[in-house]
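Write out this protein's structure.
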Amino acid sequence: MRHRVQQTVRYLGPAGADDRHATETARILRQLGADEELVVAGMLHDAAKPANTLLWHRVAGVLLERFAPRIRRELSRGDSTFARYLDHPHRSAEEARSLGLGLDSTAARPIISRALARAFDALTERPTVEGAARIVALVLAAKRLGVGFGLWGTQNRVFALWRDHPEAREALRPLADVLGFAFAADEPR
């Protein structure tokens, strides 16, 4: 979660932040092997974000997503700036459909799932900090893009690695944080 807040602050400051965000989204999708239609969808996913979005809207959105997703969904209804910010991915897709563009990001799920499976296979074979960092990057990319990636399966693979590779536990802690759970000294909890 801290990563999301840091990302928000980093992108907010200078002019052109939304353009940089769209470009970074396209880069991530291309790196994951997405076709150009999905890359365009990723670039346009913020089209309906209100121009007057403030820092508190973004920070509150991140916190609500993490700690109170049901409340976040309720608050996304309506026409206030905050509601429009919370619901901007959905509204962007609706806007694109009204223009005849298909912005279905569901095609990204199998791409990200395959990339995660390969990264986990490599990490299982040779547990390293770099391998865990690769998985963290993939999970964060999926979350930023709003693409499902198989949270339960991902958590189960982390639990298995924790159990089978005690030497890799320190490398796995950041991954556990990103997935929303913590490890005790010797056991997942």
